Each structure stands twice: as structure tokens, then as C-alpha cells.
């Protein structure tokens, strides 16, 4: 599912392949876009959730790629 979501965000934001791979998309947190009549974002994406929940979810995703020592 993360691959599909990254593809949608990449398209909407006009991001490069490298940039989308660096984007931290928290698992289980809905993304909100406001779109114009041409389906172009009028504001940057935002996350639907309180700041602390989103922060914890982003930290969990970031930690998935780290090696435990």
C-alpha cells in the first residue's frame, strides 16, 4: 500500500524519484489534499490526526530502516 500512496503523492506533488523515496509517510495516518478544479493541490498535503500521533507514526516509520545495534 505504501508504494501506491507514494505514487499518488509523487504525481500530485510533482516529485522526483529520489525525493519521493526520502519522504516519510506515516503508516495509518490519512493524508489530506485540497485540490482545484484541475485536480492540482492548492495547499501542501497535511495529515489527518493530532500532532503527537502523527509525530510518533513518522518516528516509527523512520525507525524501520535503522539497524539495531
Topology:
Layout: H1 2-13, H2 17-22, E1 31-32, E2 46-47, H3 51-64
Antiparallel strand pairs: 1-2
How helical, in percent, are the residues?
40-55%
Number of DSSP helices?
3
Distance between the termini: 29 Å
| Count of the separate structural domains | 1
Describe the fold and architecture.
This is Phosphoglycerate mutase 1. One of its GO terms (biological process) is glycolytic process. It comes from Oryzias melastigma (Marine medaka). The chain has 69 residues and is mainly alpha-helical. It has one domain. Helix content is 46%, strand content 6%. It has a two-stranded antiparallel ribbon with strand order 1-2. The chain is flat and about 50 Å long. It starts with a helix and ends in a 5-residue tail after the last helix. The model has no long low-confidence stretch (mean pLDDT 89).
Briefly characterize the structure.
This is Phosphoglycerate mutase 1. The protein has 69 residues and is mainly alpha-helical. It has one domain (2-64).
Features:
69 residues, 46% helix, two-stranded antiparallel sheet, single chain
Amino acid at each position: 500500500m505504501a508504494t501506491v500512496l507514494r505514487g499518488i503523492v509523487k504525481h500530485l506533488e510533482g516529485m522526483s524519484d529520489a525525493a519521493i523515496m526520502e519522504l516519510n509517510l506515516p503508516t495509518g495516518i490519512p493524508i489530506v489534499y485540497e485540490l482545484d478544479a484541475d485536480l492540482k493541490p492548492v495547499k501542501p498535503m497535511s495529515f489527518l490526526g493530532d500532532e503527537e500521533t502523527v509525530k510518533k507514526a513518522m518516528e516509527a516509520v523512520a525507525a524501520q530502516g535503522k539497524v539495531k545495534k
